[in-house]
């Protein structure tokens, strides 16, 4: 039986462009148009446009502390300045990651929470249960989201919408008029390149897509290129690299946990800090152009020590790269590994993240 999927408002646009479509997080999404390598290169060199309408968006309005929102995430909501956003986690009692997300501070008493597609319904239910007051609304169906990413993204956005876009610093956003409606334009993204995330009413997203693609500096890119781009810069993918049985400490993401505040899962993480983790994230590069795949085994001196969670061929490095989890221990840079699956075997070495750090992200 075919997987039931939901279509974004841009589904017909993708099909008109002959995109390869496939299910992702319960949505029918474009994997590629021209090809993953070509779309990856366009994003690294010019400006790529991504349909991200599948993501979930919630609005909370009220007193952050009295309403209980301040205790929901691994970071403080009340200390986010208006016009800024913050990344972190929604955890379970065991410290496992229910989701990774970004909170945008819209006003003194209002935030937008942006979550992953596959986890959106559960996220909304979990957060709702933890709140003690305030108004909490799921606006996913009413919200469209496009990401334009690449070193020419700023020039494209200024050409389309004016100079005010050029002044937005990294991890800040503005609210502005686009196509006659209120939109949020944020200097954030998932590629390691200069870019913007645009939140606009869903009934305007097709018009915005068409407008941006009229610029010859812009081409559409699918989830295939997006996965290569994010892994090159070491970003985790929910459902592969992080999940409900993996903690931020195991995933090497403890920097996004504020232990000076209360949050669900804090006690479990404090115990883990004291006792040590049972598994840890490692990054590696392969000595050939072969791609390590999810669930491939990681061996050290012929002994299984873990498994791959994400792997691709990196056009920027010219070799296979990957991240995975291994039993807690010492994995010094340059340590040899073997990545195996059935008859497949590839030699690799431990390396540091990000694999690629010459992007235009902060330019």
Q: State Rg.
A: 21 Å
The major sheet is characterized as: 6 strands, mixed
Helical residue percent?
10-25%
Q: What is the oligomeric state here?
A: single chain
CATH architecture of one domain: 2-Layer Sandwich
- Calculate the terminal CA-CA distance, rounded to whole Å: 47 Å
Mean residue pLDDT:
97
The CATH homologous superfamily of one domain is named: Probable tRNA modification gtpase trme, domain 1
Helix and strand composition category: alpha+beta
Give the helix tally.
Answer: 7
Apparent shape: globular
The CATH C-level class name of one domain: Alpha Beta
Report the uncertain regions: none
Q: How would you describe what is shown here?
A:
Helix 2 crosses helix 6. The strands form 4 sheets. A 6-stranded mixed sheet has the order 11-12-13-10-4-14. It has a 6-stranded antiparallel β-barrel with strand order 15-18-17-16-19-20. It contains 7 helices and 20 strands. By secondary structure, the protein is α+β, with helices and mostly antiparallel strands.
């Amino acid at each position: 039986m075919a997987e039931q999927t939901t279509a974004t408002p841009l589904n017909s646009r993708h099909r008109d462009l002959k995109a390869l479509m496939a299910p992702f997080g319960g949505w029918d999404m474009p994997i590629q148009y021209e090809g993953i390598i070509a779309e990856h290169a366009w994003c690294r060199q010019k400006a790529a446009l991504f349909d991200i309408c599948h993501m979930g968006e919630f609005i909370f309005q009220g007193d952050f502390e009295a309403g209980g929102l301040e205790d929901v995430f691994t970071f403080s909501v009340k200390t986010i300045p208006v016009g800024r956003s913050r990344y972190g986690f929604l955890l379970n009692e065991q410290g496992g990651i229910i989701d990774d997300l970004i909170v945008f501070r819209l006003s003194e008493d209002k935030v937008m929470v942006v979550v992953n597609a596959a986890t959106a319904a559960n996220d909304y239910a979990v957060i709702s249960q933890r709140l003690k007051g305030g108004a909490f609304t799921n606006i996913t169906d009413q919200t469209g989201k496009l990401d334009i990413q690449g070193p020419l993204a700023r020039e494209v956005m200024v050409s389309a919408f004016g100079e005010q876009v050029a002044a937005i610093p990294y991890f800040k956003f503005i609210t502005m008029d686009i196509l006659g409606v209120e939109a949020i334009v944020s200097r954030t993204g998932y590629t390691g390149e200069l870019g913007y995330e645009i939140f606009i009413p869903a009934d305007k997203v097709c018009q915005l897509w068409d407008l941006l693609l009229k610029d010859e500096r812009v081409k559409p890119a699918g989830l295939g290129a997006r996965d290569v781009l994010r892994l090159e810069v070491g970003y985790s993918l929910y459902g592969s690299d992080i999940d409900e049985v993996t903690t931020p400490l195991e995933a090497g993401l403890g920097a996004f946990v504020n232990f000076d505040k209360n949050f669900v899962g804090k006690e479990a993480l404090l115990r883990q800090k004291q006792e040590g983790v049972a598994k840890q994230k490692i990054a590696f590069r392969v000595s050939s152009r072969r791609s390590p795949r999810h669930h491939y085994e990681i061996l050290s001196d012929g002994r299984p020590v873990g498994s791959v969670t994400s792997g691709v061929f990196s056009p920027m490095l010219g070799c296979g790269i990957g991240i995975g989890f291994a039993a807690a221990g010492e994995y010094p840079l340059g340590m040899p590994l073997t990545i195996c699956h059935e008859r497949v075997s590839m030699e690799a070495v431990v390396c540091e993240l990000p694999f690629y750090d010459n992007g235009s992200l902060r330019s």
